[in-house]
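pinned: reference chain
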Amino acid sequence: MSEKLELLAPGGDVEAIKAAIVAGANAVYCGLDAFNARNRASNLSMDELYGVIRLAHKYNCEVFLTLNVVILEHEVPVLVKLLNQVVNSGIDGLIVQDMGVFNIVKKYFPTLHIHASTQMTTHNEGQILFLGKLGANRVNLSRELNLPEITKLTALAHENNILTEVFVHGALCIAFSGQCYSSSVSVGNSGNRGRCSQACRDKYEPTAAGNEYPLNLKDNSAIFELPQLIEAKVDSLKIEGRIKGAHYVYTVTDTWRKKINRFVESGEISNDDSNLNKVFNRSFTSSFLTGKLSKDMFIDSPKDYSAKHALEKSGAITEQERQGVQQNLYNEKQALGVTLADKVKGLNIDKANLVISIKAELDEKLIFAAQTGGRDFVVTSTSLLRPSKDSSITAELLTKRLKSFNNESYLLTAVDVSLLNEGLGVPFKELTAMKNELAFILNGSVELVPHADVPKLAQNPKVEASPKLSLLISDEKDAHLCDVTDADIYFKIPESLKKGCDKHRDILLRNPRFIPWFPAVLIGKDYLEAVRILELTKPKRIVTNNSGVAYKAFEMGIEWIAGPFLNTTNSHALLEMQVLDCKGAFISNEINRHQIRNIRRPKNFKLLYSIYHPILMMTSRQCFFQRTVGCKKAAIEDDCMLSCKKATTITNVKGISFAVDKQKGGYPSIYNHEQFLNLEAVRDFSDLFDEFFIDLTDIGSGSKEKLDKVRLVREFEKFLVDEDQTKEALHDMVEVKTNAQYVQGL
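pinned: its structure tokens
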């Protein structure tokens, strides 16, 4: 495992990366223009990435590249082209969300290290083992975890030669990362594609509790939890902020660097975080880490709090005093900017100039002499030069062969052929060998990885039988549906389970047709209880939205299907799931008909798609009711998950309302005001999907009128047989509906 505690800083552009380096970051993470989850950052060009890597490595700083979005099938060739450019750059790791990217990198670019993004929502033991099986070298743990949970997962990760990374400073999402669809649903900009519009920062109509920003969390700062993080043996402390500027990156990184150094040297941690308050912040909280999920985690405005903090700290009363405080803050920021400019003025990411001189004389070896950065390198042929008429080496030939050295790393300023005598030749294979040897030397004597071609996957076999209906329930009272349909019936296991309680085991044993359906988030004892259900019931098949449960099913030889919240959008993800004996997968409802059409089905693999469900926008470990309807409890207590079943609505300033729903045993969630109803998918893809799925739970319904489930099942079954006959009946039953995601896609 790592011998040092890494400080990992954000780099939204070149200047921010320079700031991180001079501030003492051990590593920086940055993105290119494509495939990264911060599209609003400036990001880097490929030439800039190479330059940043050269600069960072000079200062013993590593560089990680973010490829932390889901990938569409038609984008695979572009992704592969990018990976072929990156693989020889010296990059120290890729930050990845999509299992398809895991598959491609592991098979075709095995020299690259893979870091599992926070978008993979990693929060239990099984997920650590799952990601290890996929080839992850490092895991960024979910931001919602507390210190005991982080300690336990880090110990397990280290046992499996995996590093752990924890966010310690910057913006907090109120939703579980990778499980937030609010931006996708509302405006068509998916957080799983780096285009989050930050609906959690939006202004809403005043709630019953009197709040206009009921979802707006303070920023994270674990500066005073540094000793506990070190004791937990985490490997990397990550600062958020790729859309922040160099000034912010320098200030935060420098503050953390000094805190870490002082604690390592003296064992002391000061209580001074004043510099952190001088740059953009929404005030600070560390409540996820401490496990004290209180109302104090929220703040009334998403705007910069730094000026307000300075005023509060100063105690200024008069307008003149207040103006003086604000002027002082401005002056301090300006002075810091000057300091930063002075520190980075000698740093550049320019390519190194390269001159290659050719010497060719009769009965001598051919010589390539390269000069770059004050260094000289010489490569010679094996054979002696001989007269040659038909295959002589010419200035034109050599200049053409060597032009590839004008690349992301070097600026080939000249190919000097003044000492080249014409009419001489050596075998062309030796020219190739000389070029490869020179490339090896110029690459720091590291072997260049050859270009990889990823073959296009074969066309998926068509479904021979007619697609089946499957449905989801969450209450044993709906067991009577077994009498009216032959559809597969999935039974939802809640996110929170009472320790040692056999309620759900007994439900499954009493109802052998129920197929367990596991949720996306299962933390701590809830994961252990979910595993216990598997061990006690030993079902033949399950659906799981949690990769940790998938790993346990793989261990037990239980057939598992990847649920819709594993965000599957491409064929390579399906292939990667098969590494753990996955037998089928739901295709994400975020992608449209054209994006679905490109997906290739693996052999002996089922594909499923949901055509009717409540539209989840976000799920949180925090409580949505503290600032909406209000709650008497000062903080979330252990029994809140098991007992609370509140529901309300919030309405944005455009007048659109959303259902806030809390089921017993479930996390607080927000749902769209419309239901998802997509009958067009049946018409478009009856030859692709084995099952079309409908969600008949009451989750997310809020105060909506509950529909006749028996009639719904019968109408959907009739529609699968003859879509023209019953389409109107279903549209009449589901009055408030949309299939916008199927139209707009990612």
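why pinned: The two ends are 38 Å apart (CA to CA). The domain at 6-172+217-344 is CATH 3.20.20.70 (TIM Barrel).
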